[in-house]
């Protein structure tokens, strides 16, 4: 006799339950303990125990009522630079479209922001302040750019200047627009980063800038990272890919005024 879905759920072993919860996390990014308990026909206490174990293993971050998937961005910058190059280029073109002539642009480190540097328009009389040597290299020998490279200690993961020197320099400028690098973004948990110094610098960037924009590949949406940067409502423009579901887009639009979907 063929087992029904309910029969399969009722007979789950603990390790099977944990696997299903992890699959749901990877598919949805955020899970709620109450919903999982109802679906798996078990107690919320049992679900919370599984979520705690998954968090201990580094798969997720516990949040109120459930858990968030840990962002896949905790890789070295050299690895990230070679990933999803075409997708990041599409995001970069869309992001660069909001830039206006004679603006002061603050460009944070990150592989997508390096693509934005390459997509910025020539001859727009832009001042670009960046802590990313890679972004700086994309702008050299191009017309219409005044480039200011922020100094400081460069970490392997961030591939951009951090620390006290960089922080002091950021605090002394007033950019019109900041393209902020984000390791993770969630409507409830906001923008997050993997390193404490990087998060501190990003917070200073947000505080200094008139407007903040983030361009983000889909796998980093509805995910978490250890260090908080800013609430989601601090982001004025959020550029996302076309595969973002209508449900997710509605959640993003509830906290961000301008959610812009790129077309490949």
Topology of helices and strands:
Blueprint: H1 5-10, H2 14-28, E1 30-32, H3 33-40, H4 44-56, E2 60-63, E3 66-70, H5 77-81, H6 85-96, E4 104-107, H7 111-119, E5 126-130, H8 133-139, E6 145-149, E7 153-154, E8 161-162, H9 164-171, E9 177-179, E10 184-186, E11 190-193, H10 196-208, E12 211-215, E13 223-224, E14 227-230, E15 237-240, H11 246-253, E16 258-261
Parallel strand pairs: 3-13, 4-5, 4-9, 5-6, 9-12, 12-15, 15-16
Antiparallel strand pairs: 1-3, 2-3, 7-8, 10-11, 11-14
Helix pairs in contact: 2-4, 3-4, 6-7, 7-8, 9-10
Protein described:
The chain is α/β, with parallel strands linked by helices. The chain folds into 2 domains: about 5-70, Winged helix-like DNA-binding domain superfamily/Winged helix DNA-binding domain (Arc Repressor Mutant, subunit A), CATH 1.10.10.10; about 75-260, Rossmann fold (3-Layer(aba) Sandwich), CATH 3.40.50.1360. About 40% of the residues lie in helices and about 20% in strands. The chain is built from 11 helices and 16 strands. The chain has a 7-stranded parallel sheet, with helices on both faces. α9 (about 165-170) packs parallel to α10. Keywords: Repressor, Transcription, Transcription regulation. It holds the Pfam family DeoRC. One of its GO terms (molecular function) is DNA-binding transcription factor activity. InterPro entries: Carb_Metab_HTH_regulators, DeoR-like_C, DeoR_HTH, NagB/RpiA_transferase-like, WH-like_DNA-bd_sf, WH_DNA-bd_sf.
